[in-house]
Amino acid sequence: MPKHGKKYRKAVEGASLLDRLPVEEAVAKSVASAFAKFDETVDVALNLGVDPKYSDQMVRGACALPHGLGKTVRVAVFCKGEKQAEATAAGADVVGAEDLVEKIKGGWLDFDSAIATPDCMALVGQVGRVLGPRGLMPNAKTGTVTFDVSGAVKEVKAGRVEFKVDKAGVLHAPIGKVSFGPEKLLGNLKTLLETVNRLKPSSAKGSYMRAMSVSSTMGPGYKVDTTLIKKFLEG
Fold it and tell me: Where is the secretion signal located (predicted)?
């Protein structure tokens, strides 16, 4: 068993981390037990009833959170011609085509999200081995390969979260900062869960949302009673 610090032990004092809670209570407890000096991020871990080794059971997508993520997102856009001015006007931090690819080949990676127009994807492919492992590769399924660069940049800047199940069928995603308070975090979480629900593969059998927990960066994870998720989404 890992040894936890004094602040962590105090945060979980009197709480049973094995209890399965209503969604609202799990979020409230994760906010209340945050103890770090910085504004911790609240994360959700969702175990889905899918087997990602089958391509038709891969759950991957993105959604714009109504209350954002509470952080500054640096956006790079691969595009040409008039699209470059459009991307810059929308707030992109760096815009380019061949020049941007060469910059990345030289080791520059000072951005958090990348967007590309379809006609630039062959160029982007040249640095795919660099961007892919870092989760920076533009992808049509998450809306980051598009000719609507203005809309994509604004959405990413406002607070857009991308997600993808791992090999174990677990999806991890941030839903905002502790300082947001439970109400805004629940609003973001509802949008995320609705999106994940819509992406349920038709080939997935049995229970879809099998297990879920909510935690702040440094705090404990609070388990959610998944039988109450439907009620939360309908509320």
Answer: none
* SS3 (DSSP) at 174: strand
Contacts of 46 (CB under 8 A, 6+ apart): 170, 171, 172, 173, 193, 196, 209, 211, 212
- What superfamily does domain 14-68+160-234 belong to in CATH? Ribosomal protein L1/L10, rRNA-binding domain (3.30.190.20)
List for the chain the helix, strand, coil content (%; round to 5): 40, 20, 35
By CB atoms closer than 10 A (0-12, 13-18, 19+), residue 115 is: buried
Q: What fold does the segment set 75-158 form as a domain?
A: Rossmann fold (3.40.50)
Contact 25, 155 (CB under 8 A): no
Determine if the pTM surpasses 0.70.
yes
Q: Are strands 20-21 and 160-164 parallel, antiparallel or unpaired?
A: unpaired
Averaged pLDDT of the chain = 91
Strands 160-164, 60-64: pairing is: antiparallel
For the chain, domain boundaries: 14-68+160-234, 75-158
